Backbone:
């Protein structure tokens, strides 16, 4: 028997979430070491331990579902490997001449960037009921079709949020009246999550809120989901600078406090708390849903803050947090606008399409924790998945949503994101709103913002900074300051 190689997602995807979570919160739990004080060797050993724990949990779920990966030859010997690919020293990934990342999934599928063979499967129609009858009006959408789609997502894809979540008590722990050289009032708000059910798990919710210092009344708010790991400092205005200059408030939430971004942390955080440290069941919520729950609890707080216009609160996220922002908008109708950037597969890009990141990649041991265990059934079996990205976008309707990609971020498949917008547009139109307003992919930096479903593919890579000015222009149609 040939030895099966352990599947790995690209290095950045496997380690970035774990690394960011640990850097943001200082460890996996109260007993974890301070990652920032470790030597490089200690970091490598620790990450390897965490990766092994995630692999073990992933395998447990595969066993529960009675799923097995196919026996595959080593990637270098795989006859299905595109011959033009080369490896770089020190990397397990492969690259083409354009520098695009290629991986082979555990199901044997190699990354594709050729539109000619993207081979999109037939998409489910968001305006056809499961019994085959068409959705002819808004009533049928709200009472029948939308619940069908949502149930598929909760059962098969992202998992079910517990119906008995713990109480969250908010405390303003710090206020700085002259933050940012007098431009803003900064508040630090901590949400204390009752963990009496399972004290070992210690999830929390930390909000950093900036309110324009010159605000004369309640203002709109943009909430950004992410981590405390900021990366390089921009040379120009930041997203926060731009939002505050518009006269709106800006809040940042570190999702790692709510739930660690790794399969190794599923017995901790809010998921571990609700399961009392036990393994997940196949339809239990994944990390993205757990983050969304925390974001909704933050929304509970914002509705009580008199400086905020509770009817004009939006959610933004980039990359994995772009997936989160989209899901948050689908799960909680209080989010008045959604801004999802470069979110790729299981975000705003069509999943039944073989281009860049795919279902297989998200179902890997490095990323599966984002989803419900049941999601693993669709690794290598894409056509069987009952939903696709355009339907998740449609769950946000009729509220406005702005979606972006980057010309040099083909992994996230910006064309697939645009196609999802096109496929979701009929739902917006059914509900009396305007869809994307185009069927051909726009040129780079040409924004489509006349409708209630907006899109732009910026010139550049995996970043959201170029998209903020366009989003703010789009959002001003809906958010007003007095």
Residues:
């Amino acid at each position: 028997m040939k030895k099966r190689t352990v599947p790995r997602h690209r290095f950045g995807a496997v380690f970035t979430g774990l690394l960011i979570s640990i850097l943001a919160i200082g460890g996996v739990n109260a007993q974890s070491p301070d990652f920032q004080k470790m030597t490089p060797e200690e970091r490598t050993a620790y990450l390897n331990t965490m990766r092994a724990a995630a692999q073990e949990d992933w395998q447990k779920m595969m066993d529960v579902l009675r799923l097995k990966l196919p026996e595959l030859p080593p990637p270098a010997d795989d006859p299905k490997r595109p011959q033009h690919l080369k490896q770089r020293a020190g990397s397990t990934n492969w690259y083409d001449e354009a520098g695009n990342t290629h991986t082979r999934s555990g199901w044997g599928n190699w990354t594709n960037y050729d539109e000619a063979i993207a081979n999109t499967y037939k998409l489910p129609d968001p305006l056809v009921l499961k019994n085959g009858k068409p959705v002819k009006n808004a009533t049928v959408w709200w009472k029948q079709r939308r619940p069908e789609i949502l149930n598929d997502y909760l059962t098969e894809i992202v998992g079910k949020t517990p119906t008995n979540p713990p109480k969250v008590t908010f405390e303003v722990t710090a206020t700085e009246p002259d933050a940012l050289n007098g431009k803003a009032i900064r508040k630090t708000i901590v949400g204390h999550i009752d963990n009496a059910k399972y004290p070992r798990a210690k999830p929390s919710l930390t909000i950093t809120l900036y309110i324009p210092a010159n605000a004369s009344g309640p203002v709109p708010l943009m909430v950004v989901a992410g981590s405390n790991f900021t990366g390089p400092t921009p040379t120009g205005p930041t997203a926060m600078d731009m939002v505050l200059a518009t006269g709106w408030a800006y809040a940042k939430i570190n999702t790692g406090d709510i739930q660690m971004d790794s399969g190794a942390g599923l017995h901790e955080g809010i998921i571990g708390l609700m399961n009392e440290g036990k393994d997940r069941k196949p339809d239990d919520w994944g990390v993205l849903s757990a983050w969304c729950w925390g974001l909704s609890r933050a929304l509970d707080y914002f509705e009580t803050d008199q400086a905020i216009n509770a009817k004009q609160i939006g959610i933004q996220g980039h990359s994995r947090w772009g997936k989160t922002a989209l899901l948050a908008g689908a799960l909680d109708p209080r989010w008045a606008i959604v801004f999802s950037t470069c979110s790729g597969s299981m975000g705003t890009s069509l999943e039944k399409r073989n281009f860049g990141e795919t279902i297989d990649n998200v179902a890997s041991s490095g990323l599966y924790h984002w989803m419900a265990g049941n999601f693993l059934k669709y690794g290598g079996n894409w056509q069987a998945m009952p939903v696709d990205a355009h339907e998740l976008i449609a769950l946000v309707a009729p509220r406005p949503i702005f979606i972006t990609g980057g010309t040099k971020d083909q992994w996230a498949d910006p064309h697939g994101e645009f196609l999802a917008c096109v496929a979701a547009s009929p739902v917006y139109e059914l509900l009396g709103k305007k869809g994307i307003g185009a069927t051909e992919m726009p040129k780079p930096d040409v924004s489509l913002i006349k409708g209630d479903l907006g899109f732009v593919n910026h010139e550049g890579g995996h970043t959201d900074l170029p998209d903020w000015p366009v989003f703010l222009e789009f959002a001003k149609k809906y958010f007003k300051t007095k």
Q: What stands out?
A: The first helix runs from residue 11 to 25.
